[in-house]
Design goal:
The chain is an alpha+beta fold. The protein has two domains: 63 residues, Ribosomal Protein L9, domain 1 (3-Layer(aba) Sandwich); 80 residues, Ribosomal protein L9, C-terminal domain (Ribosomal Protein L9, domain 2, Roll). It contains three helices and nine strands; from the N terminus they run ββαβαββαββββ. The strands form three sheets. It has a four-stranded mixed β-sheet. β8 and β9 form a beta hairpin. The chain starts with a strand and ends with a strand.
Amino acid sequence: MKVILLKDLAKLGKKFDVKEVSSGHALNLLIPRGDAIAATRDTLKRYELIKAKEQGDKQVIADLIAKNIKDLDGLNLSVASKANDKGHLFAGLHREAVVAEIFKQTKLQIDPEFIKLDQPLKTVGEHEIVVQAGEQKAKFTLVITAA
């Protein structure tokens, strides 16, 4: 049975992919959970339009960020976070926290997916953060101090 995935699913595919799965898997698991919908001629047309609109929206956001990304290049931001006496943070700073700090200090909105972090920041000190939107790249320094 062919289905259209409505969200990213591990080992199956990405959102809006059309996949061939067994009828039992589709009817008993994917469709009732809202993870997929049966791929009929009408639903394929409808979801192609939705997919194109989402990709267009992402491109517009990427273009806006690319225009303003120069403002971030070389910037120094500081944030205070609770840490122990060895300099380890109690709660790591994730992409979302970095984005919130950028907005708080520069009023620039950035999608967390454009922040390139391998893992959450967990130590006090200076950290170089890379923001990449398309071909545009910016590097800025995030200084984490103990609160």
